[in-house]
Amino acid sequence: MKDQNQKNNQKGISIYIAIIILGIVSGIVFGLVVLFLGQIKTLRNIGDSTMAFYLADSGVEHSLFNLRKEGGNGLVSGSLDANNQYVLFSCGGNCVISRGTFNQKIQRAIQINF
């Protein structure tokens, strides 16, 4: 009789163990999702930063072309569309700063001396 009562008392323990394991696994999965979403955002920002850098580089190349082939002063500007552009500024003497802007939020600059 004692063995029968002991078996009846232990029937519900498996559900508690399953809930605990499910909670632990859910916590791990949630942590990984948060980690991966942060990484995706960082990668997107790196891509935007790279585009802004290449826009600034395009401005430098356009400036050098203007100086050497067209006989201009090297201060030019251009854009791919309304959100992506480069602008050049003179910093005195033989120096030009090119600032590339991507999606109106990310900016990178390159300075050249010639």
Radius of gyration: 31 Å
Discrete helix count:
2
Derived structural class? alpha+beta
How would you characterize the largest beta sheet?
4 strands, antiparallel
The outline comes out as rod-shaped
What is the H-and-E element order? Answer: HHEEEE
For the largest sheet, list the strands in their spatial order. Answer: 1-2-3-4
How far the N terminus sits from the C terminus, by CA atoms, comes to 99 Å
Describe it.
- The model has no long low-confidence stretch (mean pLDDT 82).
- This protein has a four-stranded antiparallel sheet with strand order 1-2-3-4.
- It has one domain (2-113).
- The chain is rod-shaped.
- The protein has helices at residues 2-9, 13-68; strands at residues 77-79, 85-90, 95-102, 106-113.
- With 114 residues, the protein is of the alpha+beta class.
Blueprint (SSEs and pairs):
Blueprint: H1 2-9, H2 13-68, E1 77-79, E2 85-90, E3 95-102, E4 106-113
Antiparallel strand pairs: 1-2, 2-3, 3-4
In short:
This protein has 114 residues and is of the alpha+beta class. It contains 2 helices and 4 strands.
Task: Provide keyphrases for this structure.
single chain, 22% strand, 114 residues
